[in-house]
């Protein structure tokens, strides 16, 4: 397993990047891998152990089998292209689906037999 530090992670976008301690290129981590590890989110500067798997669909390494380390490093502002996320996941506003109002059907609109088309 490789260890590394979370550079940034954006919950609404569903992905982020981990900087491996061995100095390799950044590893992509997606929300599915985070949820499979039973974590709600990742925070900038969080230490993780993970396995690197090359994803041929996107042509870059991805992190799998995440394990959170107890050691935390301070967040480095140079790593984060976005503002930090709130610690409370419930504070993230998700878009709501539009509501559709259906009007009631009247008996005159309903027929006893279905009509054939064509």
The radius of gyration is 23 Å
Q: What is the helix tally?
A: 1
What is the string of SSEs from the N terminus onward?
A: EEEHEE
Which whole number gives the mean pLDDT? 76
Unreliable stretches (pLDDT < 50, length at least 5) are: none
**Strand arrangement across the biggest beta sheet:** 3-2-1-4-5
CATH class membership: Mainly Beta
Q: Strand portion, in percent?
A: 35-45%
Account of the protein in words:
The protein is mainly beta and 118 residues long. The chain has one helix spanning 31-36, and strands at 2-10, 15-20, 27-30, 46-55, 60-72. A hairpin with a 6-residue loop joins β2 and β3. The longest helix has 6 residues, at 31-36. It is elongated and about 70 Å long. The mean pLDDT is 76.
Keywords, please?
118 residues, mainly beta, OB fold (Dihydrolipoamide Acetyltransferase, E2P), five-stranded antiparallel beta sheet, 1 helix, 5 strands, 5% helix
Helices and strands, with pairings:
Elements: E1 2-10, E2 15-20, E3 27-30, H1 31-36, E4 46-55, E5 60-72
Antiparallel strand pairs: 1-2, 1-4, 2-3, 4-5
Give a summary of the structure in a few sentences:
By secondary structure, the protein is mainly beta.
């Amino acid at each position: 397993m490789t260890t590394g530090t979370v550079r940034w992670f954006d919950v609404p976008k569903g992905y982020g990047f981990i900087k491996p301690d061995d100095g390799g290129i950044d590893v992509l981590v997606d929300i599915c891998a985070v949820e499979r590890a039973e974590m709600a989110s990742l925070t900038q500067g969080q230490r993780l152990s993970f396995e690197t798997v090359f994803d041929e669909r996107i042509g870059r390494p991805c992190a799998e089998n995440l394990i959170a380390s107890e050691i935390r490093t301070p967040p480095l502002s140079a790593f984060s292209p976005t503002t930090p996320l709130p610690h409370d996941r419930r504070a993230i506003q998700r878009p709501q689906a539009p509501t559709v109002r259906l009007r009631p059907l009247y008996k005159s609109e309903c027929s006893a037999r279905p009509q054939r088309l064509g």
